[in-house]
Structures are given as structure tokens and as C-alpha cells.
Amino acid sequence: MFLVRFRGACKVHSLNINYTNANVLKKDTIFTCKTQNLIFFKNLYSTKNVKIEDSGNEVRELRVRFAPSPTGKLHLGGLRTALYNYLFARKHKGKFVLRIEDTDRDGLAYKCYCSSSTLEEIRNKALKEGRIPVYDKRCSMLNKDKINSLENEGKPYTIRLKCPSDTNIVNDRVYGTIKMGAAQQDDAVLIKSDGTPTYHLAHPVDDHLMKITHVFRGEEWLPSTPKHLAIYRGLGWEPPIYVHLPLLFNTNKTKLSKRTGDVDVDSYRKKGYLPEAILNFVAFLGWTPKNNSKEILSLDELSEMEPPLSRPSL
């Protein structure tokens, strides 16, 4: 089952044009669009759902999501992440959710009054000293009188999450158990100065409310996972199972980006590449299925050859 959901204003549904392919409009499709707290949906088919067990022995439905931000066109790396989510959900008869992460607008947390110039100074100092640039927590040590004074002045602030002071352990289905020291972790900004949530806060909340059980995403989010786990713990929620996929690189060994280069999916379609060819190309980037003699596989065949959730050979 396929779900599409937008957070925030979706600009009169124009995002459907960019992120929805008419080829997926089949009988097993559900589309939902949340705009200004109104939910529009169309249920085209009802199917039996497979249930999974969580640590509390509560039966839950298997749900995955692909959550791109509308900051550019979809590139091949994003398409591969979406495809792996879809194949995993399809094989296990779960649900695949497409959620547009539109957060870009004109006790465990604290107010941070640091300006952009102050943050830049902190970053430059860390780089000069050979340290990982992380926020130095100066605003977490402000006393109540100082905070009241800054509030009376009307000084703008963000809200940061206090990073755990001990070693963070992340269990990932691809990279295994990873330990990250506190010195490597930053106090993430949860609320911007204009009152809107950042990705670090919005995505755990959305995943919990949408009952997401497995999160497939790019390896670049692995260092941020302790922040997201801290939010789950702070809110008393059970986190999903994380699956971080290896990054795709250009020939010059730079990370594939939707903002640079001719790598967006739409450009390949305009050049005449068939959808089946593009899907097979990205499906086998970093994965070679065993006992496969066919050159081109359908989605049904790909879903029966679920990519192994183990550390890739690099």
C-alpha cells in the first residue's frame, strides 16, 4: 500500500506534479495530502496488512517512509532510497509512505540566543584548533536573571536539545552497532527563531504519529541519529528500526547532490531513458542479487529479491 503525505502548505497541491508518477496510480494506492491541517485522501483499494511485533509485544503494522525535502528535483540517490523502502514494504505487505519534508520557511531543551556571527566564530575556532565544530552549549549555562533580561529585550532565540553527555549507541541494520562519543554530538536546534520546527524535531514526531516502523535513509544522517533517539526517549516513544544506505558518488568522488550536476531523475526521462531501466540501474547500485540471470527485472521481481540488510562491501 502506498501513501503520500505533505506537511505544511503544499502550494495548492503543485508538489503532486513533482513527486507523483501517474504510473503508480493503481488499485493498491492511497494518496493523502495534509494542507493547513486539512487531510485530503482517496482510498483506491483495501488489502490485508502484515503485522509485526515490537519490544512490548504489541502487534504493529509494518510501515516505512520516504521523506524528501522540496528543495530541488529528485536525484538518483533519493530514487534508490525510495525504491528500497518500496520494495521492503511490498515484500512484507506493509505500507510505504511518501512524506514531503517542507520545513523550510521565510528540562531536555533550552533557549539559545547566539547570533549567526557568534555561531560562525565558534565554528571557526573549533576548526582552527582541529576539533569537530559543535555548539559549545554556552546558552545552556545562562542563569534565570540573564534569560529574563534577554527576553525583556526581545532578543530572538532558537530552542536546542541537550545532547546526552555519555556515549551514544546506535543500532543500525546495515552498519551494526555504532558508538558515538559526546564530543562528536551537537545540541541540535529544534525550534527556529521564527517558531517553526527543524527537521530534527519534525521527523521523529511525524514518524511516531504515522506509526513508522522502519526508516531507510542515506548514510549522511547516521551521525544525527543520536539526536533523534534522544527526542524519542525524551517523549517516551519507541524509536523505529534505522537502515542507513551507503551514499552515491560522482566520478570526481563528490557526493551525489540534487543541487549540482545533471543527476535528477527528470533529466534522464527527458533524454529517453525508460522508467524500468532507471529503476534497475539504481536498484543495483551497491547490491547484486544472488542467482539472478535476468538483465531487467520488474518491480514484482525486485520485491522478491529484497536488498540484504547487512554492511556493504566497500
Automatic annotation (TrEMBL):
Domain of life: Eukaryota
Molecular-function annotations in GO: ATP binding; glutamate-tRNA ligase activity
Pfam families: tRNA-synt_1c (PF00749)
Annotated ranges, domain Glutamyl/glutaminyl-tRNA synthetase class Ib catalytic: 62-105, 106-305
Position of the signal peptide: none
GO cellular component: mitochondrion
Alphabetized InterPro entries for the sequence: aa-tRNA-synth_I_CS (IPR001412), Glu/Gln-tRNA-synth (IPR000924), Glu/Gln-tRNA-synth_Ib_cat-dom (IPR020058), GluQ/Sye (IPR049940), Rossmann-like_a/b/a_fold (IPR014729)
BP-aspect Gene Ontology terms: glutamyl-tRNA aminoacylation
SUPFAM superfamilies: Nucleotidylyl transferase (SSF52374)
Keywords, alphabetical: Aminoacyl-tRNA synthetase, ATP-binding, Ligase, Nucleotide-binding, Protein biosynthesis
Cross-referenced PANTHER family: GLUTAMATE--TRNA LIGASE (PTHR43311), GLUTAMATE--TRNA LIGASE, MITOCHONDRIAL-RELATED (PTHR43311:SF2)
Family per record: Belongs to the class-I aminoacyl-tRNA synthetase family.
Name of protein: Glutamate-tRNA ligase
Organism encoding this protein: Smittium culicis
